[in-house]
Amino acid sequence: MHSSQSQERPNILLITVDQMRFDCLSIAGHPIVETPNLDELARNGVRFSRAYSATPTCVPARAAIFTGQSQRTHGRVGYQDRVPWNYERTLPGELARAGYHTQCVGKMHVYPARSLMGFHNVVLHDGYLHHNRNNHSIPMREHYDQVDDYVPWLRERVPGADLIDLGLDCNASTVARPWHLPEMLHPTNWTVTQSIDFLRRRDPGKPFFLWMSFVRPHPPFDPPQAYLDLYEEAEIPEPPVGDWAEKEDVSQAGLSPVTGRGIVPKRRLRKAMAAYYALITHLDHQIGRFLQALHEYGELNNTVIVFTSDHGELLGDHHLFRKSLPYEGSAHVPFIVNDPGNRLGLKRGLVADQLVELRDIMPSLLEAAGAPVPDTVEGQSIWGLASAEQGGKEGAVAWRSHLHGEHAQGLQSSHWVTDGKEKFIWYSQTGEEQFFDLEHDSEELHNAIRDEPYQERINHWRSVLVRELEGREEGYTDGRKLIAGRQPKAVLSHIRV
């Protein structure tokens, strides 16, 4: 059954990738990465150039998407597995309540892993999660074979196959090698294959909400050889290294395959960067494959599309890797909206510079679906910023002035505030502060925290952070100043029930 644009409510397609940097789009000016399908979505849609993940790791980022809440409210201010997800109001739940057929394919990263979170069905592949694989986990409440749909599918085609066959850890940001099986068996292809199958199986009498959630370009860096070939001989720019970054690697942390920091041997780093970019182009082509299938089913012009990532990948910036830290490579994400049927009146080709965050996805998609937005939601709908009437007009839509981000992570626990033009960072355990003028120093090469011309702005942002942290259970402030050394928590107490 084919839908037409006259259908009262549009389908909703949310595409998320895992660990993709904000700058890895051709249309954003990246000198190496090729993303033709995402470029086309942006060229005929709207790209938000200042989109952030306020708590940039997998679990808290997904909590923001599911609930539309800030990290202070959804309670996940760091990364911690096996904390139950008991949110009453969720994006898929509200869309299901509004009459949508809801489906997730790919990564959810909730607990218990099989929680539907409001979806009618989930075809699950969270990737390699250590807490589901390690037999010494106590208690062993979920066996890995019970919480993954990709591996049983793969083993039907390749008996005995496993996620560790390549010898790459799921957090190996500096080691890469090509995928060893036919491309159609890659997890990225599987996600699209299962999503296309949903188009066949869906209820034709309802609009659908499909969350197509990819694990890549999160490690392991294992692109199909054809995609790695695109970048093997390319002149890949070296990562930026700020004047504040560690210049020596005394402990030789950079030699570890799962390092978060350090000086990595140049050949290894270049290979990892090439593989990371190759995974993104592979994703892009598979997204194009799904969009083609959506068109063949007659649904493309009746579907509102949002594309983003849960967080970025530092990829050697400042000799840092992976995510969680407050720097642009980690916290700044791509964010594209597209409406082929022009239901929402988007200003096609607009690059919007307002500060958006993952919590804004839920109210935006509910508004597009004509569904009520629960009072629990703290994000804002983005459509006014993207519309042909209002989009691009400064002050036309009331919007947030800044974003508070954070991540609990031992000695690296940090809080930051930004308006997309300036950024103030406070490391809560050491008291170290940093300030970056992003308009003139987009790569965060110079820490201007002691520069006289910026002192007024630094004092302003410090006071903003004090206000954001007032009343927090960790005791980060007394309302007048920031207090270093207070014990950070990955999960706030109000959701530990």
UniProtKB/TrEMBL annotation:
Keyword Metal-binding recorded: yes
PROSITE patterns membership: SULFATASE_2
Similarity comment: family membership: Belongs to the sulfatase family.
Annotated InterPro entries: Alkaline_phosphatase_core_sf, Sulfatase_CS, Sulfatase_N
Metal-binding found in the keyword field: yes
Protein name, UniProt field: Arylsulfatase A-like enzyme
Listed CDD domains: sulfatase_like
